[in-house]
Amino acid sequence: MPSGGRLQYDLVGIATALASAEYRVPTYQRSYAWKETQVQDFWDDLRQAMDAGDPDYFLGTLVLTTGDANERRITIIDGQQRLATTSLFLAALRDVWAGRDEDEQAEDLEKNYLSVFDRRAKTREPRLTLNEEDDPFFRDLVIDQSAPAAVRESHERLEWALDYLAAQLTEDADSHGKRAEDRLIAWAEFMDEKATVITVTVPSEADAFVIFETLNDRGARLTVGDLLKNFLFMRSKDRLETVKTSWVQALNELDLSAENEDFVTFLRHHWSSMHGAVRERDMYRAIRDDITTPAKAAKYAKQLAEAADLYAALNSPSDPYWTAKHFSTSARANVETLNRLDLEQNRPLLLAVMEHFAAKELRRTLQALVSWSLRGIVVGGIGGGRTEKAYCDAAVKVREGKIKTAEELLSELSNIVPTDAVFQEEFARARQTKAGISRYILLALERAHSGGKEPELVPNANEDEVNLEHILPQRAKSADWRAFTMDQLASMAQRIGNHVLLKKTENAKIGNKPWLAKKPVLARSSLKLTRVASKSADWNPATISARQKTLARLAVTTWPRKPPS
Asked: Given phi > 0 = left and psi -120 to 50 = alpha, else beta, which region is 256?
């Protein structure tokens, strides 16, 4: 191989690269991720290049390292998806040969490109081993050909890719009639000689990550998660194994892969929790500028692993974190409600609170955040950058020890938590197009009206059990609702005052019927607020507005601004 300093590089056919060495995908790398469209594009591009007679078809760069003295296999830093798909392509070509009773051709492909014989174990081992999640399935699928059961999405993708490529190669060979054998030979030669890659091999993983980052700066498409992982590994030097362990732990806690957008969101929320709000596009640069030593890389990776455990708990009220003795069922109900409201802006703050507040203050903060979030949804602006910045700034102060209680938190957030007067005024005219949120609002108000304790904490409103009914239908016929103008028919159906709840057994499919048909059904309801609505002689704009003003007054006490005692 030509070399420059410690870096070695070569331009070779991708099948030749597979035949010349044994490779491993390290544990921390993602599982097989190519979706159907990517495999289809891979096939289409190869076939077009074959048919065009191009001297070379370039498949990109493989970044490799031979740094581990205890590992005979070459480690893949970048390029595993292409190598894995190429292995599946060659396995498919082998299977097509076998299906034509060309056993020698099939055996040649197997021995040269797919597997090597382990003399000590007396077994054939794959030339390419994937990560721990995929490798057993990949071995069974490609080497043993034993029809394994797919238990992960990546397994399904591997299986689909092999079947698809085998079907395409079979169809392609059949289309050449008597020249089918020559076509299959041409495919093997094309992958060996003309479907080329540049292999860049360096002595250590840290060096490989430098190359990887440089290539990304020049145009490779990677997620922030990919970039951050490789930057941390590059920066960690002698702390690499520690950083790897923490990184894998964070992924496992969240049951995600680094390229998953949910993982990127976690990374952003965690960083924002410590340093203030950061946009995704700015996050990598901010972290890169801050993590300047191996010690900092190890510390940050450890923080990620610990925060991932907390973040997983925020995603699930049934997480073991909430079943600890010092957390009541109301804490779990609060987590469920916050997830139901589908807001992310509070996550950085909650990460800080979970780490630094006493258990009692955490419980009070969770309950207060339910009220503050609902108020924000009704008043508006809860999804804007101003709210996120305020939450993140508060998170930083929590970590600095400047905020230690729910009351101090409210004082810090006073500019974004609507006052009682503003909340009541906005609630009185609010529209709600999301059925799940409207159902939650009405259930909480029903509980408050009935004198229930902690009315904002209601069981999950199962749509199969409790239906949201629009008294003025969403597709109302003007002939049935003459009190409404055409504009009002369109606008007032989504007013909260127009919404009621009906248990499924009480709802006799009254959706588009006029008021006089709905009125007796509402009167028979077991829900008090629904029965109250039925007492109106007519259902018109004034009725809706009056009812909504009444609900607004109840809402102020249902979702109090002050934290609970």
From this structure: beta
CB distance 201 to 65 below 8 Å: yes
State how far the Cα of 111 lies from the Cα of 109, in Å rounded to an integer. Answer: 6
Residues 468 and 376 in one domain: no
Residues with pLDDT less than 50, the chain = 1-5, 218-221, 456, 459-460
Q: Maximum Cα–Cα distance for the chain, whole Å?
A: 90
426-439 in b/e form (b: 16+ CB < 10 A) is bbbebbbeeeebbb
Domain ranges, residue 403: 320-418
> Tell me: the pLDDT tens digits for 384-426?
578 899 999 999 999 999 999 999 999 999 999 999 999 999 9
CA distance linking residue 348 with residue 270, whole number of Å? 6
- Residue 41 within a domain: yes
3-state SS of the chain: helix, strand, coil percent to 5?
60, 10, 30
| C-beta of residue 79 within 8 angstroms of C-beta of residue 63 | yes
pLDDT tens for each residue of 27-78: 777 789 899 999 999 999 999 999 988 788 888 888 888 866 566 889 888 8
537 within domain boundaries: yes
Cβ neighbours, 10 Å, residue 553: 13
Contact assessment for residue 493 and residue 476, using Cβ atoms and an 8 Å cutoff: yes
Contact 63, 12 (CB under 8 A): no
Which of 257, 284, 315 is a domain's end point? 315
Cα separation of 208 and 165, whole Å?
Answer: 31
